[in-house]
Amino acid sequence: MADNYYMLQDLRILIIGTGKIGQQLASYLNFFDNHPIGINTNGRTIDSFRKTFSLDQLEEQASIADIVINILPLTDDTYHLYNKGFFQNMKESATFINVGRGPSVDTQDLYQALQNNAIAFAAIDVFEQEPLPADHPLWGLENILITPHISGFTPHFQKKFMAVFFENFTTFAKEGELTENEVSLASGY
Fold first, then answer.
1. Catalytic residue among 44, 60, 92, 130
2. 16 forms bridges with which residues in the sheet?
């Protein structure tokens, strides 16, 4: 039975999305002596990660990960990125976590992967259709944790959000530029 328990530092954690949220999560994991691997568009190095790979190397890295965490935005490239082929490529003992965007996961393929034990567990905060219909078969599975799109809620969210807004507003009014969280319309995030 002891073989079913692991130390956090012994798990290979793959964070897909190395932006501010991914970096913060990586820094927390580093504190607990786990040094996560990151996936971003081009594999550029990010300090909080032991190593980073490009999105083209996702399936290779996911196949050896114990925990796969999606934090990617939704773009044409990430729509249904997590599908039947992706889940079949993961380790059967692996956990998949989605706190990114719902449509990046093919919900039916996720259901099949969990039902057939292609992956061991999933924790899903966002879905293609929200709320997840009450009669959806995912509700009947024991190897999934479903949360109601709450992963982004933090204490004092409004205060933090308004601080960013006012900083951007002030800078934009003075210089015509944003200082934080600027979205690239070309890339979609």
1. 130
2. 39, 70
At 159, is the secondary structure helix, strand, or coil? helix
Residue 2 confidence (pLDDT) above 50: no
The radius of gyration of the chain's CA atoms, rounded to the nearest angstrom, is: 18
pLDDT, tens digit, 9 for 90 and up, residues 61-80? 999 999 999 999 999 999 99
Q: Could you say which of 92, 101, 128, 182 is catalytic? A: 101
Token readout for 128 is 């293609």
pTM above 0.85, yes or no: yes
Cα 110 to the center of its chain, rounded Å: 15
Rounded-to-integer distance, Cα 143 and Cα 140, Å = 9
Known catalytic residue at 12: no
The tokens for 46 are 């990010």
Give the number of other CB atoms < 10 A from CB of residue 57.
Answer: 13
Q: One of 50, 80, 136, 149 is an active-site residue; which one?
A: 149
All structural domains of the chain: 8-152 (3.40.50.720), 154-188 (no CATH)
Token reading at 71:
């934090």
Residue 130: active-site member: yes
